[in-house]
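B., you asked whether I could sanity-check this one before it goes into the benchmark set. Here's the sequence:
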Amino acid sequence: MKLDILVFAAHPDDAELSCSGTIAAHVAKGKKVGIVDLTRGEMGTRGSADLRDQEAAAAAKILGLAVRDNLRFQDSFFQNDRDHQMAVIKAIRKYQPEIILANAIHDRHPDHGRAAELLQQSVFLSGLRKITTTDDDKEQQPWRPKAVYNYVQSLYIKPDFVMDITGYWKVKMDSIRAYESQFFDPKSEEPETYISRPEFIDFLEARAREYGNQIGVTYGEGFTVNRTPGVSDLFVLT
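And here's what the prediction gave me:
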């Protein structure tokens, strides 16, 4: 299945927290969007990997994803090395996306920045024809997307552009709430974490409103780029 946009996320819920409004907006336009989670989030304090699998599947339905895969890298211990790069290359070549969205270039969780580096290098390598990969015993063709954008996560990063997600705020929040084990629940007896505090959801809205304010809308999601985007029409910039 060829995708228009492929989102890579170090953990299930990274994409929902950071760019699910952007995902929903493009799905509504008829684009095929998928998520490839690198890990099952098994090192998370709350819940379990099996439960996160179920929550990720529920969020995928809410967002209308064409596909959701998991590479099952070891949470907190995956590396930017050849074995992990080859697995990512296979995923890129399998779905042949025009655009890739990836974790923040640096963030509170070290997996996020490491995932960004892994994706940056894997995207380049995926375009080299002398690197051979197979899927279902069939040789894959080289593929390099037109663009890679890194979404902003917990730490503030000045975005290179902001996506208007005002019309998709409810879908974003519904996809986040699919991860019931991870966020605030007054009945939960599990330990409190950075994202399970009740004020964390307030922070998400404040960040989205801050980015939205920068472009004159209610809610926005921020992204950074590794190379200068080119345009042929000034009117696409608003």
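One thing to flag: Residues 56 and 102 are 17 Å apart (CA to CA). Otherwise nothing jumped out at me.
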